[in-house]
Amino acid sequence: MATNKKTPSTDGAGSVLSSMSGPSDSNAPHSLGADNDVTRALLQKTAAGQQLSAAMAVNPKEDGQYGDAARTPVEGVHVATGEPLATASTTGETTASPKTGDGHPALGENARNASLDGARADDSGCVLTTNQGVPVGDNQNSLKAGLRGPTLMEDFILREKLTHFDHERIPERVVHARGSAAHGYFECYKEQSKLTRAAPFAKAGKRTPVFVRFSTVAGERGSTDTARDVRGFAVKFYTDEGNWDLVGNNIPVFFIQDAMKFPDVVHAVKPEPHHGMPQAASAHDTFWDFASLSPEITHMLMWVMSDRAIPRSYRMMQGFGVHTFRLVNAKGQSVFCKFHWSPMAGTHSLVWDEAVKISGADSDFHRRDLWEAIECGEYPEYELSFQVFTEAQAEAFPFDVLDPTKLIPEEVVPLIPVGKMVLNRNPDNFFAETEQVAFCTAHIVPGIDFSNDPLLQGRIHSYVDTQLTRLGGPNFHEIPINAPLAPVHNNQRDGMHRQAINRGRVAYEPNSLAGGCPFQAGVKGFNSFPASAEGDKVRGKPEKFAEHYGQARLFWISQTPVEQEHIVHAFRFELSKVQTVAIRQRIVAMLRNVDETLAQRLADGLGLALPPVMPRASLQPLPAYPPSPALSLFFRPGKTGIHTRRVAILVGPGSDGAQVRSIYAALLADGAAPRLVGSHLGKVDTSGGAPLDVEISLEAGPGVLFDAVVVPDGQGAVQQLGSDANALDFLRLQYRHCKPMLVIGAGKDLLDKAGVPVTLPDGKPDPAIIVAPSGDVVKAVAAFKKALAAHRAFARETDPPRV
Q1: Which residues are in the Catalase core domain (predicted)?
Q2: Cβ count near 753 (within 10 Å)
Q3: Where are the domains of the chain?
């Protein structure tokens, strides 16, 4: 007979590893599978949080707010925190670094010092006050002339509270408004003094604190994470010699060649101004009108229409500095460099139908994924590489290295791994850190310098300029998240929101009244590389900038057939939403310069006759690039196996409890995040053993939110789930999106009812659908893990989908 005893000790672990939903009781598991400081802290935080909340079942002082009792406010009810983790924003608050602090939260204090500890505020055990530190006697009622009389103008407490609330929001970023961020560190592999004197690369093992923000470009602050878009990949290095901001994207090229066109491309892709639609989408007339008349955009279009624009996770995408920069060593010698970030988890993406459905199910999908991974100790890692070349090499390339619509194939200039970045702590406060952080391409340090890339030159101005409005003036560098760890000494003074209190009367240089201080650093400071420059004043571009299609073709021929198929589908989808036929025709004409098959397939998908090829600006033959395998997502499968993969185990009354727990534990042991998914929350009786606790319901956790699914044995559960359309849809979407599926015993009946075939369209067995009898679970789970590590089985994909 089933009992309510909760066994084994990992029951509900998946809920602790998540940030949404959970079992119907508050009992925490004894283990999360792995036993380490992070998992123990996470368990401790979960248990302490539940206990602290339970201690506040009611507000015993509620009656004191009404009638005559309200004339004598009483002390507000409060409970001793006890365990510091109970009120922590993140289990990672004990993860120390020179920027985030010593890892020991000071409860009830608001100190200020060089690290962010000086800006943190904790209210544990503290009396409520005004912004001026005045204790508030009553935070429930405004001051009135009699209990039924008018509110009095003298109520400064009410006015302060409302005024501050009215001004809480600040202007959002013009682009990259939607984003998520994390703290971490960069660790140098080997000193790079021959190439650069930049502080992060000074010696092997040196760690530099970083703050990283990932973002979409087009959408507003509240838009979805999974829109088809470029992703921002901005890293702030808090170096010994000041802040270095490497403000990049997950795509190595850009839409335009010159900053003069930046407002135009942004205006074109943003919601159309007459009706404010669409949100976070390029599938509309104004963007494609601009694109069809701007051939320089062609290479970027190929990337944005690829799966690169719908990453599975911020942890599973590359990052690029986009522009050509200079590295300068201590001798003043310089080479050109492009920066590359490569994720240790590999490069993996969503599929479009999945991305669209995730937007409705969980628009915070990428934000949640990043947060959960860090909270669980599965710290995202990225390897930084230099792509170094000389000016002589640059001259020999068939493209101009100052053209931001071009890349340098890795096969031409290999990557030099120089260090890794680890993100090991979530922010304490989204607004104070993620929203107020300011990344500026102008923020460089000695050893890094600019090239003459005309887009980079404009960004140097624009990124600083935009902060003046968004963050309220020129002192945004004093906001704690933006403040450098390096000492700041200069004669910049005053301005809105100034924090520093400068001693003395001198605010100029040269001076004698302050002993000449602060004094310029000379050769030890930042000195621009003395690149020669001469020529007439002219508005225009170099001749090599006129070639727009060679690298677009390179990208196309470097993709696998699956990736090419997805590019065709993306172009077809986007242009199907465009209303103006001439715009569609121009894009097809443009793509004829890239690949005739691509153009013909797109024309067929849009019901168009193939238009004449668009004339090319350059009269030179297209460069004959060989395929570059590194441009395919499949080139970097990753090194993390099934860690952090979300696996749904469908359960219902009559599930084989022992089998479910065995599979759950096996997945958890290898780093996956399993969850028991059922028709609704609560306990379900099993065919043997203790009841199972459903961790998330089918309506709260549809199939698009999981990387794979397990259908365990249990005839009763199969019958119940078979009558639930949500369960059948769950399986169909898992199949349509090419995800691994493990089906045990009677679970095959549920697969059949959902109409999910176990063979590929060509009749061969589907390698990612493992069907096994109940007696062969161990072998089946091993095969399932292998399929899960491979991410998807694209061989089952058809257009249109057959399920």
Answers
A1: 129-517
A2: 16
A3: 179-478, 549-635, 646-796
User: What DSSP state is assigned to residue 197?
Assistant: -
Question: Among 412, 426, 454, 393, which Cα is nearest to 262's?
Answer: 454
CATH-assigned architecture of domain 549-635:
Up-down Bundle (1.20)
Give, in degrees to the nearest 5, the angle at Cα 665 between 659 and 671. 140
Sign of the C-alpha dihedral computed for residues 449, 451, 452 and 454 taken in this order: negative
Whether 443 and 245 have beta carbons less than 8 Å apart is answered as yes
For 351-400, the pLDDT digits (tens) are 999 999 999 999 999 999 999 999 999 999 999 999 999 999 999 999 99
Q: Which residues of 691-724 are buried (b: 16+ CB within 10 A; e: fewer)?
A: bbbbbbbbeebbbbbbbbbbbbbbebbbbbbbeb
Amino acid identity at 464? V
Q: Which residues are within 8 A (CB) of 741 and not within 5 positions of it... i.e. 6 or more apart?
A: 708, 709, 710, 711, 731, 734, 735, 751, 756, 768, 769, 770
pLDDT given for residue 102 in this prediction: 72
Joined together, the tokens standing for residue 580 give 């103006």
Statement: residue 708 has pLDDT above 70: yes
For the annotated binding site for heme, the residues are 173, 213, 262, 459, 463, 470
Question: If one looks up domain 646-796 in CATH, what number appears?
Answer: 3.40.50.880
What are the catalytic residues?
176, 249
**Record: fold of 179-478:** Catalase HpII,  Chain A, domain 1 (2.40.180)
SS3 label, residue 648: strand
User: Which two tokens mark 18?
Assistant: 């998540």
Indicate the annotated binding residues.
173, 213, 262, 459, 463, 470
